[in-house]
From TrEMBL:
Residue intervals of the Helicase C-terminal domain: 272-437
Gene3D superfamilies to which the protein is assigned, alphabetical: 1.10.1740.140, 1.20.272.40, 1.20.58.1080, P-loop containing nucleotide triphosphate hydrolases (3.40.50.300)
Biased composition (Basic and acidic residues): 709-725
Name under which the protein is recorded: ATP-dependent RNA helicase SUPV3L1, mitochondrial
Source taxonomy: Eukaryota, Metazoa, Chordata, Craniata, Vertebrata
EC number: 3.6.4.13
Family membership: Belongs to the helicase family.
CDD domains the UniProt entry points to: DEXQc_Suv3, SF2_C_suv3
UniProt main location, coarse: mitochondrion
Compartments, record wording: Mitochondrion
Cofactor: Mn(2+); Mg(2+)
Amino acid sequence: LSTGEVLKNLNKFYKRKEIQRLGADNGLDARLFHQAFISFRKYIMESSSVSADLHIILNDICCGAGKVCLLGHVDDLFPFFLRHAKQIFPMLDCMDDLRKISDLRLPPNWYPDARAIQRKIIFHSGPTNSGKTYHAIQRFLSAKSGIYCGPLKLLAHEIFQKSNDANVPCDLVTGEERVYANEDARPAPHIACTIEMCSTNTPYEVAVIDEIQMIRDPARGWAWTRALLGLCAEEIHVCGEAAAIDLVTELMYTTGEEVEVRNYERLTPLTVLDYALESLDNLRPGDCVVCFSKNDIYSVSRQIEARGLECAVIYGSLPPGTKLEQAKKFNDPNDPCKILVATDAIGMGLNLCIKRIIFNSIVKPTINEKGEKEIDTITTSQALQIAGRAGRYGSSFKQGEVTTMHRDDLVQLKEILNEPVCPVKAAGLHPTPEQIEMFAYHLPDATLSNLIDIFVSLSQVDGLYFVCNIDDFKFLADMIQHIPLNLRSRYVFCTAPLNRKEPFVCTTLLKFARQFSRNEPLTFDWLCRHTKWPLAVPKNIKELVHLEAVHDVFDLYLWLSYRFMDMFPDAVLVRDIQKKLDDIIQVGVCNITKLIRASQAAAAPGAAEVVSQDFPLSRTKSDTRAVSERHGARSTEALSIAEDVPGDRRAKNLKAYRSATRQEELKSHGHGSLADRLLREGLLTQEMLRQLESEWQDQHRNGRYGLRSKRDDQNSSKETGKKKK
């Protein structure tokens, strides 16, 4: 056969609309059809021999081409093409069954116990600090039985304490912890839990679902959908933003349940100031500077303490105990600490006495629905959530204020706060273990990562829903694929709550899985050897970051211990050392400025990775634009380096970029080696440099230094004359 003729006829086969329709009828969408054809063409063109029947068909097509009486037609290749496609895509043989399993168009039907009762849905709508959650909790406490579902361990712990303080026995259930109100470990009628841990089988009189707007969260939204549709309670009290009312109403319409909306107004006034802070010298007691990166936290906190002020620090990766201690320190009227530096972690879960919120920046790193990282302006919802923490009802401040650090950002912040919050349009869904097991039954040779991919590609969702991002799940599935585990255990390991950007935590999960697969219990001694416990108080930022990672490892152990009790038997001992580690981290955070100085003084190559005095990752939009004008695409690259590039390469890239940026910015300011040295030693920042330059220009313009300048010029000319002579 002529290879040229065969290739020409194969391409003709691929382009025929009738063949593409036949492929679609057999489960081959455009993407699968294309992949199957590439493989089929490669098989024919590169094989030394093909089956006799296929050879005859190809011969008839090639010999009959161009003749009136055709011996064969390219359409005759379809049975051979389909057979080949089924070899590389085994799911084609059971496509109908797989489509039924991955049909997500009727999630309410997944919860027959909830559908068997008529539930009353009450939506408590209002902004931050409006008392909406308070009213829902009052009903929770007065009920014979109840469940509170919150987004954070801190919130669940707060309700747990409030309930027991009010003599309402309440248990605490989080992914890592079970605390019983009764000494004999008998379950109490009330439960406060993180939302992923709520039971859809246990009947309650009242259920409270907090922060319902998170039903749209690309990663965790499925947990709110599951709670809303599946909780078996006579009354469901939903708390959150008004933006979620329409979606909740539509979802409840599909279950035949009506929604009663109760609206609340903010209890204390909140004022957007007409002026920016502009300098940390203008800070007052009760101020909170909000940053969107750890690097900014480090930079701002050091600058504040350089001015002789003490500040508390709160950011997302700190252990809950440390966050509470820092909040307690800031709230204590007798403590000299009157300033708070925090990320948007203060948006929920902590009761803080804040007078004024100051946005250090209004851009932050985010992850979109596709799992892609972006640097974008904060949304109206995020801005309101953070700004609303100022002037908390019942605190010493009866009125809240909000402003920005930089003048350029203030106009934009006002626009953001005045915009209506975008309505929540869809609720998240996630494949269940049972659905994945049924997929695995039909596709026994597929990896868990491939099973998830196939599930998502075949899934059908109603317009009210979307499939949550499963990149973290797939990352862990690929990481432990080579370890021999049964499917259910593998699924549990892949749903473990960890930050995949933390190499130490990911490596530990891998070791956990390997030890588990050998059926060897992970003992307390084994864990201490791996984490090198006991650990010392951190001497620099790098050590503090490592301690936070070790705390996450202990959390991971406790999380797995409640799912595999026999294999992770020492949860009590691990919880004890985790509390000790929490105390060590608290000491480190209290001395954070000393750690920053130590990190900057150190010659270690990793120092640049965790400390950025000169170029914080989250800048204002105007800063980013100015830098990009001078450095082109390099500013965008810097913003993504810390997120996208692992290990030593990331540290080198960041170091090289910041060095180049520092030189460029020094040139742009027209300052010489003194400014360079002050910046390098951390005695001066770019912000202070700009402020000094601005003040000098203002004073020179007002004539304050005019006489001195002339004298200096005269003295300078005299000196020059002497040297010439």
